[in-house]
Structures are given as C-alpha cells and as structure tokens.
Write a structure and sequence with these properties.
The complex is a heterodimer of chains A (297) and B (391). With 297 residues, chain A is of the alpha/beta class. Helices cover 34% and strands 9% of the residues of chain A. Chain A has helices at 27-33, 39-45, 65-68, 85-96, 105-110, 122-129, 162-174, 185-191, 197-201, 217-220, 237-246, 251-257, 271-280; strands at residues 16-21, 47-50, 73-79, 98-104, 153-155. Chain B has two domains: 17-244, no CATH class; 256-384, no CATH class. Classes of the chains: A alpha/beta (297), B alpha+beta (391). Bound molecules: iron/sulfur cluster (SF4) (4 copies).
C-alpha cells in the first residue's frame, strides 16, 4: 500500500509516521497491520512515510530510507535491538530526524531474545553457527534502543499488544499521555476475574513481577505468565524467585524463565544470585503443605 | 435489602422462619429468577468456588469444601454433600456491585459542540445467594463508603438498591477466617432479605431459613418449606457456635486502631516489604477495598472520547503519583498504607474497621503475607520495645 502519492508533504496537514526495523522478527510491526479495523482511520490521521512492511513499492524516501531518510518524522516507531555497528549508527540518524521516538516490543525495549548472547561468547556462537564466521559482523551484545539514543516512550511486549499500540498512537495524536500502566499482570488478572492459578493450583506464574499490558491472557487459560512484557515497575525479584522455588521450579528453571525475550532487562540482573541464594533457604517459608488440587480444573 | 444499610442497625427480628430441603433451594433460585432477578451464587469453576450467574440450584457447590491457607486454595470433596460448608472464595460481591471496569460517559464532537452521554445501560437486578456473614458486613461498609457521604456513586447505588441478599451463616470456617476477631461472623448480622443455615445430619440435608425484610418474607412464603422445628434450629445454631470456636486465624487482643497508629516506625514494615510483591492482589480480592482510577480514552478520529473507571490499588506506584513523582515510592510505605488504612484510619474516615476478617487477602497473596501475622508481629514489637524517652 502506498499512501503517499496523492498529496505532497508540503500540502498535507497530517503528521508523519515512520516504522523502523532493527534486529527483530517483525512481529511488532505486524501488530500495526493487524489493526485491520482501524487502518483506514489511522491513515486518515497520519501520513505513513516509511513502513517497509506495508509498502509494495518504496516510499518517497527511496531505497536507502533507513540510512538517509530525510524526515522529519513526527512519530517514529522503532522495532528491534541494536546488534551491529551499522545499526548503532542508523538509530542515531533516525533519532535526529524524528520528533518523537517510541520503541515497540521486547527487542527494542530490552534487547530481545537475541540478548542471550550478552551472557555468552558471541565469537563462539558465530563459529558454531556459520560456515564462514569471518563474514559476520556483529556486536558482542544486543542492546535496547534506549542504550543508544533518548527514547520518548517504551511500549513493552513480545509481541506488543494491538490495543496498546493504538493507544500510544492515539495519545500522540491527541497530545496526551498514553494510558499504559507499569503495574503487575496481577492487576489485569484480577480485573478480568481469573482465579489465581498460583494460589489455586500451585502453578508458577511471573505475573506479580511482570509489566501489565497483555490483559493477563496466560492465566486465563491456566498457564503461568512467562514474562513476555518484561519487568513491572519496581519488581521484588527476591520474593518472586523464592515463590517460584516454592512452586516447584528448579534453580535452573528459575534462571531460564527469566532468560527469555527480556533476558537483558536490568531489573533481572540479580536473578542468578537470588536463585543460588534461594537454594540455601528452606523452600517453604510459610509452612504451607504441598497439596495438589482436586476436582474440575 | 433494598435500602442503604447502616452498619449499626440492630439485626431485625426474624419475621418468618422455616425449614426446607434441597428442593426448597431449587425453588428459591426459581422464585428469585421469576421475580426478575439475575441470581448470582457460588459454583465450582476453574478449580475454585467462584461467584457466577446461576440458572439452577444444581450449580451450587454441593459436596465441595475448601482447604485454605496463606497463599494456597484447594478444592476438596465433602462426603456430606453440603453446599455451603466452605468459606469466602476468590471473588467478593464487589465484583458485581462495584465492577472492575465501568464506562462512566462518552463524548462526541458534533460540529462545534461536544455532546456528553452518560452510560445509558440500566443497572442489573441481582439476587445474591450465599452472602457470608463477613461479606454482609463488607457490603454494609461499601454502602457507607460509596453512598454514605455527600457524593453517591451512581453505579454502585444503582446495582445495590435493587439487590436481594440471601445470606448464609458459616458452619465450616476456612483456615484463614477471623470474623470472630472482627465481630462480623460467623452468625449473620443485619442487612439480609433471607438468611440460611445449612444442616446435614442423620435427619437429612436441610436449611433453616429466616426472612429479614418484607420481600424476603414474601419469597419465603412461596417456597416448599415446613415450619421450623426446634431440632433443626438447635442443630443450626450449634453448627454456627462451633464454627466460632474453629476460626483459622485471630487478630491480636489489642485496639487495632491504636496499634496501627503507634507502630508506624516499626522495623516489621521493612520485613514485610522484603516479601511483598506489590502485585495488588490483596486489594483486588478485599471485599471493602474500593479505590478506582479513571482513564480517558480517545479514538483515532479524535471526535469520540470515553471515560472509564477501573479498580486501582494503593500498591500501584502510580496510585500516589503527584506532580514530581509518587508519594509512596517504597514497598514499605505502600504495604503500610494498605494495612494501616484497613485496620486504623478507616475508623477516622468511615467510622468502622475496613477489615471484616474474610481472610481473602491471606489466601490470595501469592507469597502468603498474612495480615493477622503482621498485626501480631507489630503487637509483639510494642510490648518488647523499650519505653521511649526513658532517659
Ligand atoms: S495467576 Fe499469575 S498473574 Fe494472575 S493473580 Fe495469580 S500470580 Fe498474578
Ligand atoms: S470469615 Fe467468618 S463469616 Fe467469613 S467466610 Fe470465614 S467463617 Fe464465614
Ligand atoms: S483486609 Fe483481608 S481479611 Fe480483611 S476484609 Fe480485606 S481481604 Fe478480608
Ligand atoms: S501483600 Fe501479597 S497480595 Fe498484597 S501486594 Fe503484597 S504480595 Fe501482593
């Protein structure tokens, strides 16, 4: 779809939108295309200047828009993390030509699943994966966009939530703060009336330390939250780790459950120490007996 | 009961009393439905006894009990087939009276004007079947909070003023219950239209049922019931009296309001802050917690806006966000706010305790934080602390 051919930038009063991709799977950008019912209203309100996923032809910015996009863009949505020296350069350019820069998704806000490299040796990985590792130029770490340039707003999730994305764009257009809370998934879980699966079934759940936004989907289907929205505001990881151990997770499992899409979130940095510590503590601080649920689940 | 209930109103004399069997319970659900009520009561779903709309009394949790501990809830089979031999479940009635999400109004830009529309949907007419004694008091407390002052909450009032309350007295308190400490149960206080006490013994499975309002008496007259016999009445009373002796928890023997006011500097608050996840579960399950936040949403056109009200919690960092940042940034200050409000400053604000002893916050705290244990620790601290200004 090319939305830009009819009106030139000079006569068109609509603010401009650009969507940028860094190291990522494209799932978050696709969330924008997934807003099927709202796409027409959206393109009425904004001029999409750069969004490769949405274009069959290059936009007015041309083939090398990534590096030389002229901008300025009123709102840039940035997906993906920085994993190459070129990307580190490119994000600085995008920041310079963007009035407001919003990062979308776990890759852009925390480094993504690819930040697992931060805990290993990237040269070793490269040698194991590629036949000619010398052709691969990559940074030692995968870092969030905010590690490179100032970011106006970070939208969490792997992938992001459709309604939250629309809220961020709508709030931007209305000149207001988006209604996006930093509290735990438990808030959403209780508001939707789900019976807590940790308490009722002993299922390990990261909800208490995970950023709300998904609408507490997993517990509603009997699955523990696995933290795809990353840490909530001020998470108490010491207590959470103890609780996960209480709910039967091994030290290795606890470490692994925090080593996913948001592995490099700074809030999770103490987890390895806390996990080792929790091993020395009695698992059951409260004297609860370990009983299994009975009856219909 | 259809009017605002004053917490201090004495219990009404049981104007009518009867004894009925399980067929009477089926007839009760039918009679209430027939009067146009949406009947809501306990039923087993997702491994818990939840509150949901009931189409028939068969959906009641006959034969199910619960095992309650701090941070743990387990459903258990009961051989006696009793429906109400279990305690407060994951939700309270505020889910229906003070819903978690309400649209308050919407606004549309029409030409040069902005047109506001209040949410037009008429309030549902609920009959609540199985309101525990603690929850009956909790409803009275929310009446006071949400409709007892100069500003009445229309959403709550609309739902509450049409509601029919069938209370149930407890004979099987949970391991986390402490209504005796809070003076709210297990016998039912005022405020019900009907109250039931379940008896299962060699003489069969039956309910001693009394009316507390005129409409309650009218409904009772429609049910297939016998005149109350003294054996059933005595067995029911004995069951409730025995329940009072088997409370799973107790509050320390102290003036809790003074205890809260006098322990603001106690080191125990740091201890509980080390465990608390600030997840907000305790406030969401508490039948008296009433705090909400508002969200104004606009659509992409910019011509339509809505105001929504959502449950909020003092454990949310944003809850105390004023210009420049949150007033209660630490977990210590947030847990302390919650507990001192519940047990202490609620008296100053609303003339009663904000805690009815239902134990939900204890059960549904994922890390098993127990308000009675915290109160006891604070109480111990006041007794062990060297007197201040001794020098
Ligand atoms: S199921 Fe998980 S997200 Fe829901 S209340 Fe329990 S701990 Fe929180
Ligand atoms: S606190 Fe008392 S009234 Fe409430 S459920 Fe427990 S025993 Fe029943
Ligand atoms: S504070 Fe806890 S025990 Fe007291 S009424 Fe609220 S949920 Fe029930
Ligand atoms: S006391 Fe328990 S339920 Fe309440 S916020 Fe803290 S961890 Fe969550």
């Amino acid at each position: 779809m090319d939305t830009n051919t009819n009106t030139g930038p000079d006569t068109d009063p609509r603010p401009t939108l650009a969507v940028w991709k860094f190291a990522s799977c494209d799932g978050c950008q696709l969330t924008l295309l997934d807003c099927e019912d709202e796409l027409l209203a959206l393109t009425d309100r904004v001029r999409v200047e750069h969004f490769l996923e949405m274009s069959s032809a290059e936009g007015p910015d041309g083939e090398r828009a990534d590096l030389t996009g002229r901008g300025p863009y009123d709102l840039s949505l940035v997906e993906g993390s920085v994993t190459t020296p070129e990307d580190a350069e490119r994000i600085r350019h995008i920041r310079r030509v963007s009035r407001r820069l919003v990062t979308i998704g776990a890759c852009a806000t925390a480094g993504g699943i690819q930040a697992l490299r931060n805990f290993g040796d990237v040269a070793e990985f490269r040698a194991a994966v590629y036949a000619r590792p010398e052709y691969i130029s990559t940074l030692r770490t995968s870092t969030p966009i905010s590690a490179h340039v100032p970011v106006d707003f970070e939208l969490r999730g792997c992938p992001i939530d459709r309604r939250q994305l629309l809220e961020v764009i709508t709030a931007h257009l209305a000149g207001r703060k988006p209604n996006i809370s930093g509290h735990s998934v438990c808030f959403e879980c209780k508001r939707r009336g789900t019976t807590c699966i940790t308490v009722a079934h002993g299922t390990p759940c990261l909800g208490p330390v995970t950023h709300a936004g998904c609408g507490a989907i997993c517990p509603a289907y009997g699955r523990g939250c696995y933290g795809c929205f990353g840490p909530s505001e001020g998470p108490n990881l010491r207590s959470m780790v103890g609780q996960l151990r209480h709910d039967g997770m091994s030290e290795r499992d606890v470490l692994r459950v925090f080593r996913t899409f948001n592995a490099a979130a700074p809030e999770y940095a103490p987890v390895p120490d806390l996990t080792a510590e929790a091993q020395d503590c009695p698992q059951d601080r409260t004297g609860r007996t370990d009983t299994t649920p009975e009856g219909p689940v | 009961m259809h009017t605002d209930t004053d917490v201090n109103t004495p219990a009404p004399a049981a104007s009518e009393e009867k004894v009925m069997g399980k067929d009477g319970m089926a007839a009760l659900v039918g009679a209430l439905t027939g009067r146009g009520y949406t009947v809501v009561g306990p039923t087993v779903r997702d491994g818990a006894i939840v509150l949901a709309e009931l189409e028939s009394a068969d959906q009641l949790p006959y034969g199910w009990g619960v095992e309650l501990q701090a941070g743990q809830y387990r459903l258990r089979r009961r051989p006696d087939g009793a429906a109400f031999a279990n305690a407060a479940g994951p939700q309270s009635w505020k889910t229906f009276l003070h819903p978690s999400r309400v649209r308050q109004w919407s606004a549309d830009r029409v030409g040069e004007e902005t047109v506001f529309t209040a949410d037009p949907s008429p309030p549902p007419r609920y009959a609540f079947l199985g309101v525990r004694s603690c929850d009956l008091r909790a409803v009275a407390i929310q009446d006071r909070v949400l409709t007892g002052g100069p500003h009445r909450d229309p959403v709550y009032q609309g739902r509450r003023s049409g509601a029919f309350l069938v209370a149930v007295e407890c004979t099987e308190p949970g391991g986390t219950c402490f209504c005796v400490s809070m003076g709210t149960g297990p016998a039912a206080g005022p405020g019900y239209d009907l109250v039931l006490t379940e008896v299962v013994d060699d003489d069969g499975h039956r309910f001693w049922i009394r009316s507390g309002s005129r409409e309650g008496a009218e409904v009772l007259a429609e049910l297939p019931a016998h005149p109350a016999d003294s054996a059933t009445r005595e067995a029911a009373r004995a069951g409730v009296t025995a329940a009072a002796e088997r409370m799973g928890r107790t509050m320390p023997e102290a003036d809790l309001r003074e205890l809260m006011a006098g322990t603001l500097d106690a080191p125990r608050w740091d201890d509980v802050a080390g465990r608390c996840l600030t997840c907000g579960n305790c406030t969401m399950v508490c039948p008296t917690c009433f705090c909400t936040t508002t969200e104004d949403v606009t659509d992409l056109t910019g011509d339509h806006a809505e105001r929504w009200r959502l449950w909020d919690s003092c454990f949310d960092l944003d809850f105390s966000h004023l210009h420049g940042g949150p007033v209660r940034a630490s977990t210590r200050s947030r847990y302390r706010q919650w507990m001192t409000h519940k047990l202490g400053t609620w008296y100053d604000q609303f003339g009663s305790s904000g805690c009815v002893g239902c134990g939900r916050c204890i059960v549904w705290c994922p890390v098993a934080i127990d308000i009675t244990e915290e109160a006891a620790a604070l109480h111990d601290w006041t007794r062990s602390r060297p007197p201040e200004d001794a020098s």
